[in-house]
Amino acid sequence: MIVIYSAYYLEEGDQYGYGLLARLNAASILLHTKTGIISKVLSRTALIGRCLFDRGVLVTQSGHRIMSVLKKMNFKVVYLNHGWGTKRTPPHLVSKNRRELKGYRWLRMYTDYVICYSDFDKTYFLRHPLIDDLPMPEFVPLGHPRNDFLVKNKDNAEYKSEVRKKLGLPIDAKVILIAPTFRDIPQYNAEIANLYQEELEKLQRCLDERVYVLYRPHHYMVDLKYLKWKNIIVCDSSSFPDPRPLMLASDMLVTDYSSIFVDYLLLERPMAFFQPDIEKYQEVRGLVIDPDNKVHMPGPKLRSLKEMLDLSENDFAAYDLEVSKKFFHKFTDGAATERVSNFINNLLRTL
């Protein structure tokens, strides 16, 4: 039996699928990714050649042509998404991008199982009039293996201090992680990137040695030019492939519509939301949660980034992080890797 792990990218610190692949009972485990930052990554042709006389499971993070080929070879396809709980998927404007639409159609047509966070996820994921003619895969809320690391280290003061030391941060400073999401249209994305530059510049003028900011742009946003700030450290994916250490090193999160806040709920730390373009974002991408619902977005809304420095405990009193965590996550025990590996191993036994 073969397991194929396919991803857009593999994080440098997690070369084996967040520890998942090491738990699988397969004779061969093959890696297939668009960015071969790890060794032994196979091309599509080589990979298919290895699978001609065997059966197995494809674990994928995207919809692509290899899914249809492997399905014809009696492989099962398991989709492991990188983020859950916030955005319409496909987006509202998927009709304007034929390549993206084709990917979503492949994903819905050839996926057997979707590993998700909760039953809420099946109410919106892979639902759009342009793909609703296709059968739906089965949704299995097991959690994501990558989040086990967050749960197991949320109270690890030694690890938090170690990451801060590597970043050059004072151990006793207040550290705020700012992590916006990507906008689907390039020009729109550039406008938001410029807006954040301006907001960060204003924020820097208000910071002192007691407060530091980690700015984490979306992993699609690389090679941008940033000003050098004294108290703001830019942590893009080219320098910090894995956002989890940044999450654990921080005391608070500021984001917009990014699903990072759903994972951040596992740390039980406060968060706030800066959404200067919410009307346009709803039009272009669309949200599956209500921004005014205190369970869906459990934190105060900011009109500018510098407003986060004025927040007090009273501003967070109306939000129950535990209630929000239970809404987005069926499991919060740090055992997703075990559940997902057991699921795939059981699937292998049926082939």
TrEMBL record:
Query: Top-down, what is the taxonomic lineage of the species of origin?
Result: Archaea, Methanobacteriati, Methanobacteriota, Archaeoglobi, Archaeoglobales
Under what name is this protein listed?
Uncharacterized protein
- Please provide an example of a Pfam family that matches this protein in its UniProt record: Glyphos_transf
Q: Which GO terms describe its molecular function?
A: CDP-glycerol glycerophosphotransferase activity
Q: Quick one: signal sequence residues? A: none
State the GO CC annotations: membrane
Gene source species: Geoglobus ahangari
Q: Which InterPro entries match?
A: Glycerophosphate_synth, TagF_C, Teichoic_Acid_Biosynth
